[in-house]
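Ticket #244: bound-state structure for NAP.
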Amino acid sequence: MNKTVLITGASRGIGRAAAIAFAKENYRVVINYFRSVDSAQELLCALKAEGHRVMAVQADISKKEDVLRMIKEIKDVFGSVDILVNNAGISQQKLFTDTTEEDWDSLFDHNVKGCYYCSQAVLGDMIANQRGKIINISSIWGICGASCEAAYSASKAAVIGLTKALAKELGPSNIQVNCVAPGVIDTEMNRSLDEQTLHALCDQTPLCRLGSPEDIASAILFLADEKANFITGQVFSPNGGFLI
Ligand code: NAP
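RESOLUTION: The complex was predicted; output attached.
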């Protein structure tokens, strides 16, 4: 049976790579995007041209009404969501002492509340179907903390807590909830880092390179597969050995 996967923030970066990987495995793929209309449409057209079943829905995952509208649009076309990948997120580098309440709220609204809204919106059907998978994208910084990224690290640690709690609550309904906590990945999220910082990060990584979006897409795809049905509540961290 072909399953429907919703990937939030799939217009670029890790989400885009995941959308391509799922499409190649014959999932029905929903590309969620917010601002990057052109890249989402380009991805939609490319996947459709290859014969994949795919749709794109614009929605701000930090807004409940947008999330509810998105899920309704998906149900009208593909039916219920079988796999939710809570990938959309934002980051910020700032001294903790300079972090405003607006900065803090924005990071938590995007990185944590978005997972809450999207998960709650798909869970009614998953529980009724007695199956489903939720894969939350955290970060190594949610495990070990990053200097000048206190709010981001705290929000990504919250995603790990949410994952573990939901895994316990939803296990009896045969719903697996896991977390992927990537190391440093070569996406636009890290474009603001200077050469020196990027070199230092590579130097600290036993595999001597940044990760690619495809490296993370493979981990997400694995957790979505039925072969991973006995895995729940876990934090899977593809990080090139950065954290051991
Ligand atoms: P990215 O290249 O900056 O892409 C971010 C994606 O999130 C975009 O598709 C963007 O959509 C979407 N997004 C942002 N705000 C949104 C909103 N309000 N509603 C819907 N979508 C929204 O980032 P990335 O590196 O691929 O990161 C993906 C995830 O991995 C994030 O959760 C990030 O925290 C996590 N992560 C990244 C790294 C890394 O080193 N890159 C490491 C660890 C964890 P639009 O462009 O359409 O607005």
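RESOLUTION NOTES: Residues 4-236 form a domain with the Rossmann fold fold (CATH 3.40.50.720).
TICKET STATUS: resolved
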